[in-house]
Amino acid sequence: MIPLLHTPEGVRDIYGDEMTDLRSISDAVCGCMKTFGFREIQTPSFEYFDVFSSERGTVPSKDMYKFIDRDGNTLVLRPDMTPQVARCAATYWRDETEPLRLYYVGNTFVDNSGYQLRLKETTQAGVELFGDDSVVADAEVVALTVECLKKAGLQKFQIEIGNAGFFRALANECELSADDEEELRRRIKNKNLFGISDFLTERKISGKTADLLLAIPELFGSEEILDRAASMTENEAALACLDRLRALGKCLKLYGVERYVSFDLGMLSKYRYYTGIIFRAITYGTGEALASGGRYDSLVAQFGRPMPAIGMSITLDTLMAALQRAELEPLKVPSTCVVYREGAYAEAIKLANALRKEKDYVCLRAANAEELANHEGEDVWSI
Fold first, then answer.
1. pLDDT tens digit string along 216-248?
2. Strands across the sheet with 39-40, in order?
3. Mean per-residue pLDDT for 51-56?
4. What pTM, to 2 d.p., does this model score?
5. With contact defined as beta carbons under 8 Å apart, do 41 and 106 qualify?
6. Which residue of 5, 81, 118, 314 pairs with 291 in a disulfide if CB–CB is 3.0 to 4.6 A?
């Protein structure tokens, strides 16, 4: 018999002080997003399967929670927010000519069966910026990520930045099949230098391109690695990706966030819809990225409205865990409790209503014996 007092594997109840902390973090992050001019959107918890199909380059089908509606349509609990918001942008803002800024908070559901202790339901807050293909837009979203993490209370973290187009340009030069590209991608993500070398030898790939592919896992750090990579290739598409990263670095210096930023040409996102800049935020003591994002200029067109876009999402559960490990307190909600003696209920309500005009959290409670002794002669007081 299923123990109904426990939650299924990969999900959990959040309550008490932890829920208060999570809400405080969410409010801080979303408040920061608002200051950058983003407006909130809410999307449904489940969608048609095709919104997240493999053609979109999102989560693999085997990792989605799928079910059938009464009409026989395959539905899924959303594993990723970006395709949903892209669908909305293509549907409701079809004739929009100005850049569109949207932010969201919602839960995503991914069946990570192969990963012990990893949550299958997480809360994410993120932004999507549509209609702007400039490096200025790239910089704004990266800078916003930095500001959101700082606003939540995190002090030490790093934003690693790559470019999805860089690896793709080299793979196209080698004329790799889809399966071969995926295999090379896997070996690079695992920083398996011996595996990469064997792969290149088996497929008779040599010269500058082979040298660069073998070096990719080690090309991370300051802007100097961009120059090193540029000296190793004549691939115009790859060089354009490096130029974009240089331009991004200059913009981020104007925001004053360069100390949080490094570059990683071996970064390869699990989401295949990314076409340009990709990034992730990491910190000490967490096995997963706090935040991730990138440019996806082709995704919205799949919903019938060609539109460049860049976005990012912060996993609030991971961010809260990082704050706890660093022994940092998220911004606390000011709280007050109005305590009253028997017969002073009406007076207590009057005081509580007055306090609620200036405080976020005010509750009412009858006094216990110890409090009555400590506040002799007082009918109503606040703590």
1. 989 999 999 999 999 999 999 999 999 999 999
2. 39-40, 100-109, 121-130, 309-315, 291-295, 277-282, 158-163, 261-264, 220-221
3. 79
4. 0.85
5. no
6. 314
Close Cβ partners of 73 (under 8 Å, ≥ 6 residues apart) = 48, 49
Amino acid at 232: M
Tokens of 310: 């860049």
The C-alpha atoms of residue 310 and residue 134 are separated, in whole angstroms, by 10
Cβ–Cβ under 8 Å, residues 210 and 200: yes
Least confident of 60-69, 208-217, 321-330: 321-330
Residue 125 φ/ψ, nearest 5 degrees: -125, 135
CA distance 244 to 60: 29
Q: Are strands 74-77 and 46-48 parallel, antiparallel or unpaired?
A: antiparallel
pLDDT digits (tens, 9 = 90+) for 266-307: 998 888 899 999 999 999 877 789 999 999 999 999 999 999
Longest Cα separation, the chain = 91
Report how many helices (DSSP H) and strands (DSSP E) the chain contains, helices first.
12, 15
**Which helix or strand (DSSP H or E) is residue 161 part of?**
strand 158-163
Q: 129 with 99: CB under 8 angstroms?
A: yes
Quote the pLDDT of residue 371: 81
Q: Which two tokens stand for residue 256?
A: 């004053």
